[in-house]
Structures are given as structure tokens and as C-alpha cells.
Write a structure and sequence with these properties.
single chain, Jelly Rolls, about 0% helix, mainly beta
Length: about 150
């Protein structure tokens, strides 16, 4: 069995969000037809998509609460959308970083050189804000593992 490197979120031909488990060589291992939680994902990935996000409203696209008696080591995150946006990473409600995308490149990602350790009950969130007039769809995922 291939080692799962990440979960990619994408839109299919009918513009419906889909998830695929992807190996280290960026080959799709399996397309997933239901939400994936941290306990189900082999390498510890949390993924989500959110549609109908209005202009100028910060909206959380994916969040995670570290389970009791556990630690979560965040190794990275990625996000994209149907338009460019500003993505903000929050830990316990405090903004830790921000990344902007452009019309030319609507993907944002960050891999940390050393994992960020979160404790039980800590809340991890990835939010987006955009400046386009119509409702838009955004995707995001956290990469890491429970310890």
C-alpha cells in the first residue's frame, strides 16, 4: 500500500468539491467521497471546503480541536479558492500568520521546518477573506500528526 503524503481537495467536472489521498509522488491513491477526520487519515490530515463565502467577510474554512490527552504537531497547511484571497492561520484565536494569493496563483501553502506543537483542547483554524463581488468557494487543509 502506498504511503499517503497528503489529502488534496479539488473541484470535479461539475464543480463539486472532491478529496483525494495522494502519495509522495503526487499520484492519486483513492478519491474519497466523504469528509476525512484526523483519526481516519493515515498521516494526519484535516481537510474541508466551504462555499458561498461573501465578499469582505472573514470565514473559517477548516478548524480542528486537539483531543483530550493528545498533542497535535502541525507540519503545514494549504489552501486555494475560486478567486484570490487572504488566508490567516489562528491558534486559540490568535493570528499566527497570513498568506495572500493572486489571480495568477490562487494556491497558498506553508510547510514548517519544525512542527508547531498544540496541546489538548487547543483550537487550530484557517480562515479566508476575499474582495470579489460574488459568493466564492475555498478549500483548506492542515497537515500534521497526533502525538
Amino acid at each position: 500500500m502506498a504511503e499517503i503524503n497528503r489529502i488534496n481537495v479539488f473541484s470535479d467536472a461539475t464543480n463539486n468539491p472532491q478529496k483525494a489521498l495522494v502519495d509522495a509522488n503526487r499520484r492519486v491513491v483513492v478519491v474519497v467521497d466523504s469528509p476525512i477526520t484526523i483519526s481516519q487519515a493515515p498521516a494526519g490530515f484535516i481537510s474541508n471546503s466551504s462555499g458561498a463565502i461573501p465578499k469582505d467577510a472573514e470565514f473559517t474554512i477548516v478548524s480542528y480541536v486537539v483531543p483530550a490527552l493528545k498533542k497535535f504537531r502541525l507540519t503545514g497547511w494549504s489552501a486555494s479558492g475560486t478567486v484570490d484571497g487572504v488566508y490567516r492561520l489562528y491558534i486559540n484565536g490568535v493570528q499566527k500568520m497570513e498568506k495572500r494569493t493572486s489571480a495568477a496563483n490562487q494556491n497558498a501553502e506553508k510547510t514548517f521546518s519544525a512542527p508547531i506543537e498544540l496541546n489538548a483542547a487547543d483550537i487550530l483554524a484557517l480562515a479566508v477573506i476575499h474582495r470579489h463581488g460574488n459568493l466564492q468557494t475555498f478549500f483548506g487543509d492542515f497537515e500534521g500528526y497526533l502525538a
